[in-house]
TrEMBL record:
Transmembrane segments: none annotated. It holds the Pfam family GldM_2nd. Residues 31-224 form the Gliding motility-associated protein GldM N-terminal domain. This is Gliding motility protein GldM. The lineage of its organism: Bacteria, Pseudomonadati, Bacteroidota, Flavobacteriia, Flavobacteriales. Residues 410-498 form the Gliding motility-associated protein GldM C-terminal domain. It comes from the Bacteria. It comes from Flavobacterium rhamnosiphilum. InterPro entries: GldM_Ig-like-1 (IPR048405), GldM_Ig-like-2 (IPR048406), Motility-assoc_prot_GldM (IPR019859), Motility-assoc_prot_GldM_C (IPR022719), Motility-assoc_prot_GldM_N (IPR022720).
Length: 515
């Protein structure tokens, strides 16, 4: 349309074309404004649901604090303070939204006129004075910055460090790089300056959602073990623990009753053992009665608690055996019925009725740790024999032996930033992540080092890496991947810490899905 002399007709066509483009832009703007309004409604609705869920969780906690104040009282007090802090912050944001939308008339469904809320001057005047942040803007920033600090001060060690880091990141107000400006901008400038009013309202609603999510996450994290395991006391299992497993004829049977999930702050209303009431202590009840004759005997009774205004009785049912003087040893692995090559296997070796200082045991790789405790470090072969000798009070000797299978450590599972299976996240996160390995359901604490792996992106060549971090070649291949692509980390080479060049069996791969 530029250059040359145009006829009146051509000028008219050009003018109509420009008007048409302007109309399209206007329509698109209205659609975008409406989209923000719809999104804001969805967030507000979700916030209401979260409020209801948080209130329900808190009421459950409040009842638990009544039933077991020693176990739940302190945590309930912390949650009450956090909920009060969250409400104050949420109401502050709601007042801002109310003040900047009061001149707009809502329709019959209660919706704001989104398409009229295309100006940002109300928020700009509230948060900024020229190019500087206003007094109200500074107050807004202080509210955000202080929220996570106050949460940490109230929750203390009750909030896991990993959870606290998520909360701090959620309310971070660090400067943000702007592609348009080509420089870092203050967080409040980047997020709130010059935006349409409906977009800012939506952002404030999302900030309210972050507050409610934080409240929910704190309760979930702080009480994850208590509210899940102790949601009902029927989840507990009374266990009879004898002072020793077998008693001689004529001895007193001594021991205690504990709950499967022992908690020193949990106390029963009453405990009945074999028809007699015994004293209830914190998390347990001790008992003592005559052993009786040789043979099998039953122990019965109940643990009784108050829960939600009712008495919950947990049945006690167990048996014990009275035997004559011992003639064979009791040998058991503390953690499993086999011993593993490459790790130190703790074991308890004893003769029933014989003190630990009168018992000796020997086997290849076996060493004493004192008090009836031993450490087994098996060598080659598939089986080891442990020989045990006990000296009875009369000076006579009894001997026994037992075979144990020797197994190698099972193959570990690969991890990305400590997560197994299919891990999801942006490419930038994978580029700086550490490739690791875990031994799933393995009873020993062992250190694992990843010394190499293969990285494969669909449609790209496999990259072989030395070490546990992505190298430049990985990042080059990764740059060609798009959202939804999966990156497979396989052929992970894993070593035991302190085991020299010994490599573990094949490590299972881990997959990273790009968001």
């Amino acid at each position: 349309m530029a250059g040359g002399k145009l006829t009146p007709r051509q000028k008219m066509i050009n003018l109509m074309y420009l008007v048409f483009i302007a109309m399209l832009a206007l329509n698109m703007s209205k659609e975008v404004l409406s989209a923000f309004g719809i999104l804001n409604n969805k967030i507000v609705e979700s916030n209401s649901i979260t409020d209801t869920r948080n209130e329900s969780s808190f009421q459950q906690l409040a009842q638990k604090a009544v039933d077991q104040p020693g176990q739940f009282g302190d945590k309930k007090a912390k949650v009450e303070k956090i909920r009060a802090l969250s409400k104050e912050f949420n109401d502050y944001l709601e007042n801002i939204k109310t003040s900047v939308t009061k001149k707009f008339v809502k329709d019959a469904q209660g919706n704001l006129p989104y398409e009229q809320m295309d100006k940002g001057d109300l928020i700009d005047r509230m948060f900024f004075t020229g190019d500087r942040v206003s007094k109200q803007g500074k107050e807004f920033l202080d509210k955000i910055n202080n929220f996570s600090t106050q949460i940490k001060a109230i929750g203390g060690s009750s909030i896991a460090e990993s959870e606290m880091k998520k909360i701090e990141a959620r309310f971070a107000t660090k400067p943000v790089y702007s592609e348009k400006a080509g420089a870092k901008l203050d967080w409040i400038d980047y997020n709130y300056k010059g935006y349409p009013l409906i977009a800012t309202i939506t952002k404030l609603s999302q900030l309210q959602a972050d507050i409610k999510t934080t409240e929910s996450d704190v309760m979930t994290g702080m009480f994850q073990s208590d509210l899940v395991a102790a949601a009902s006391l029927t989840a507990y299992q009374p266990i009879v623990v004898m002072d020793k497993s077998v008693f001689f004829q004529g001895e007193a049977v001594t021991g205690k009753i504990i709950l499967g999930k022992f908690d020193p702050s949990l106390k029963a209303k009453s405990v009945i053992i074999n028809g007699s009431s015994v004293s209830a202590e914190a998390g347990q009840a001790k008992f003592s009665f005559g052993a009786g004759g040789i043979g099998e005997h039953s122990i019965g009774g109940s643990f009784n608690f108050d829960e939600n205004g009712k008495v919950v009785s947990l049945p006690i049912k167990d048996k014990y055996v009275v035997v004559a003087r011992p003639k064979s040893a009791t040998i058991s692995a503390d953690k499993m019925n086999v011993v593993y090559r490459g790790v130190v296997n703790p074991m308890t070796i004893s003769f029933a009725g014989v003190t630990a200082d009168k018992v000796s045991a020997s086997a290849p790789g076996l060493s004493s740790a004192g008090g009836g405790k031993y450490n087994m470090s098996p060598g080659s072969g598939s089986e080891v024999v442990i020989n045990v000798t006990g000296t009875l009070p009369d000076g006579s000797k009894v001997s026994d032996k037992k075979n144990f299978r020797i197994k190698g450590i099972p193959g570990p599972t690969g991890t990305i930033r400590g997560e197994m299976g299919v891990v999801k996240g942006p490419k930038s996160s994978l580029e700086i992540s550490t490739i690791g390995a875990k031994l799933v359901d393995f009873d020993f604490e062992v250190g694992l080092n990843v010394v190499g792996f293969n990285l494969k992106v669909t449609g790209q060549p496999t990259v072989v890496v030395q070490g546990n971090k992505l190298n430049a070649q990985c990042k080059a291949v990764l740059s060609k991947a798009g959202r939804g692509d999966q990156v497979t980390i396989s052929e992970i080479k894993t070593k035991l810490v302190g085991a020299g060049s010994y490599l573990l069996p094949r490590t299972a791969p881990v997959i990273y899905e790009i968001l």
